[in-house]
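Illustration 12: Carbonic anhydrase.
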Amino acid sequence: MIHRIIFAIVGCQLAITVLGNDESSHHGEWSYDSDTGPMYWYYDHPQCNGTKQSPINIQENQAIYNDSLTPLLLFNYSTVFNNSNYYLTNNGHTVILGMDSNSSISVGLLWKGKQYNFFGLHFHWGENDTVGSEHLLSNKHFPLEVHIVHYLNDYGNFSNSLNYADGVLVWGIFYQLDNSIDVNNNSLKDVFNNIRNVINAGNKTNILPVPLSSFVPQNSLDSYYHYAGSLTTPECSESVLWIVNQKIMKVSSSQLQAFRLLKGHLHNVSDSVEPEVLTENDRPIQPLNGRKVFTSVPYFTGSSSSSLLTATALYIIFSFVSSVFL
Ligand SMILES: *[C@@H]1O[C@H](CO)[C@@H](O)[C@H](O)[C@H]1NC(C)=O
Ligand SMILES: *[C@@H]1O[C@H](CO)[C@@H](O)[C@H](O)[C@H]1NC(C)=O
Ligand SMILES: *[C@@H]1O[C@H](CO)[C@@H](O)[C@H](O)[C@H]1NC(C)=O
Ligand SMILES: *[C@@H]1O[C@H](CO)[C@@H](O)[C@H](O)[C@H]1NC(C)=O
Ligand SMILES: *[C@@H]1O[C@H](CO)[C@@H](O)[C@H](O)[C@H]1NC(C)=O
Ligand SMILES: *[C@@H]1O[C@H](CO)[C@@H](O)[C@H](O)[C@H]1NC(C)=O
Ligand SMILES: *[C@@H]1O[C@H](CO)[C@@H](O)[C@H](O)[C@H]1NC(C)=O
Ligand SMILES: *[C@@H]1O[C@H](CO)[C@@H](O)[C@H](O)[C@H]1NC(C)=O
Ligand SMILES: *[C@@H]1O[C@H](CO)[C@@H](O)[C@H](O)[C@H]1NC(C)=O
Ligand SMILES: *[C@@H]1O[C@H](CO)[C@@H](O)[C@H](O)[C@H]1NC(C)=O
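Figure caption equivalent — predicted structure in token form:
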């Protein structure tokens, strides 16, 4: 109770400071730090105080097995669109990988019979190699989490999809530290090498075409967690069906270090105006508020019941089917 009151008072003072300074330049401004950090996002972005927010801590042994969580079916994830323009851009909060194309191209996934189109891919990292992912897995952080953002084809575009509970599907993929990977023989080499070319907010650089499948672990379409949540940045819209991969990718320390050199939007630091340093961009975990987290694969407890064996058999069949589609 005491904590809440103190928080409320501090919060009000900061709101006045933020709005009183220069309303036009501050309005809607947000960051991962100080008086525009995650605790204060809801002043200008009220959905961030909702009850179905992301990220969350995924407690593996509490995830509910749900056999309606069929494998993701990808389309054109492995295709390299040579006539499209692949780029990285720094939007002041993260690095986004996007594609521009003059002809209509179709990349995305089918899930539970619905078509979700690729919208963009971005990264979340932390100030050191022990933190950075937005979701936690049984209280454990990973140093990097990639979000592949899709919108429901039926809703026409991403911004319209934000108005619907099933409008957006974000596929989250954890990356774990592994300094033995060969960073020079890696399909993501050009992506990681170009991060240094988008140091400042607003920078954009073209990269070699890269299939989206490069960001996803092999044979991972059938083993994931699922829950209903939100965007992890303002407006924090509660329109996201989350798919959090159970298989994990690898990243090296040197690749991670490149992200921490990035800079965000300008803000006032004592008497000078400087770019925000983007050493981290991971929103803290949010309360579940009674939401359920589902798993597409039964949690292995060591016991062997016939239903577990059936599920395992189905899982093997799904692995085979989905590996054909990747
Ligand atoms: C945030 O939401 C809770 C209910 O979910 C409400 O009690 C609280 O007043 C809200 N806070 C603000 C600042 O709107
Ligand atoms: C399985 O998940 C769906 C949501 O995707 C939910 O509607 C359904 O109730 C779940 N079934 C069980 C047994 O939890
Ligand atoms: C793009 O170019 C590569 C290398 O030249 C080729 O293997 C691939 O088939 C091309 N992709 C398409 C969709 O034409
Ligand atoms: C699309 O067309 C415009 C104008 O013809 C051209 O400038 C641009 O480079 C093209 N972009 C791609 C990705 O092909
Ligand atoms: C994959 O992309 C090609 C080229 O844009 C397109 O013709 C095809 O329909 C796409 N495949 C699917 C399953 O959408
Ligand atoms: C890593 O950063 C976190 C906070 O972002 C901090 O709590 C922790 O002490 C740091 N760990 C190391 C080894 O520096
Ligand atoms: C997105 O779709 C909505 C609804 O169809 C439409 O009003 C809006 O103009 C579209 N926005 C863009 C950027 O195409
Ligand atoms: C690069 O990696 C691929 C697949 O992991 C491997 O087959 C190939 O031999 C490697 N090339 C070099 C030069 O190490
Ligand atoms: C990156 O952004 C900075 C600051 O806006 C600008 O000065 C610089 O020219 C940009 N560089 C590139 C390659 O776009
Ligand atoms: C910094 O503060 C000054 C004085 O309060 C204000 O005019 C300016 O807009 C602020 N700049 C930024 C980038 O916040």
